[in-house]
Write a structure and sequence with these properties.
Elements (H helix, E strand, L loop, with lengths): L2 H26 L7 E7 L10 E4 L2 E11 L5 E7 L9 E8 L4 E8 L22 H20 L3
Parallel strand pairs: 2-6
Antiparallel strand pairs: 1-4, 2-3, 3-4, 5-6
Length: 155
């Protein structure tokens, strides 16, 4: 094999690997998925990233398209909701922790039955978020301190 052919094969494989990597990242972030955008403004994002799921009543209905930090410290989040899903107008959005590795998801929770739905481009009001792992650990720590006091009291 000629030296020139080896260089061309190397360049071809490098370009193919780069295209494969970028294509995979694009697909993971919902590149081929259609849907309409909804917006939300959060004070705390809890490691929220593009590509993470959007849940409506616990069912995956889309993904996070983009997360931008504003100058005032809030996060502007663009949600992509599947075309076949209608989000009730009385729903609120909240950031929920998923698993023990710090991942998060956006949960859209309806506050009762509603026949009116959000339209593309609407802003979803923000509700209360779940407690995070730090809050749970503080409570466990305080329970441990109380248990120590109780065991030392009879002594």
């Amino acid at each position: 094999m000629k030296r020139r052919d080896e260089v061309l094969v190397g360049i071809f494989l490098t370009v193919a690997a780069i295209i494969g990597l970028l294509g995979t990242l694009w697909l993971v972030r919902g590149g081929l998925s259609s849907g309409y955008p909804l917006y939300a403004k959060f004070a705390w994002g809890q490691n929220l990233k593009p590509g993470q799921p959007v849940l409506l009543a616990g069912v995956n209905v889309g993904g996070v398209r983009d997360v931008k930090l504003r100058d005032d410290g809030y996060l502007d989040v663009i949600l992509r909701v599947n075309d076949d899903v209608k989000v009730p107008k009385n729903s609120v959005a909240s950031v929920k922790p998923v698993g023990i590795f710090g991942d998060a998801t956006i949960a859209l929770t309806p506050k009762g039955p509603s026949t009116i739905s959000f339209a593309a481009g609407d802003t979803v009001p923000v509700g209360l978020s779940d407690t995070d792992i730090q809050t749970i650990m503080k409570r466990v720590d305080s329970i441990g301190v109380t248990g120590q006091r109780m065991t030392k009291a009879p002594n």
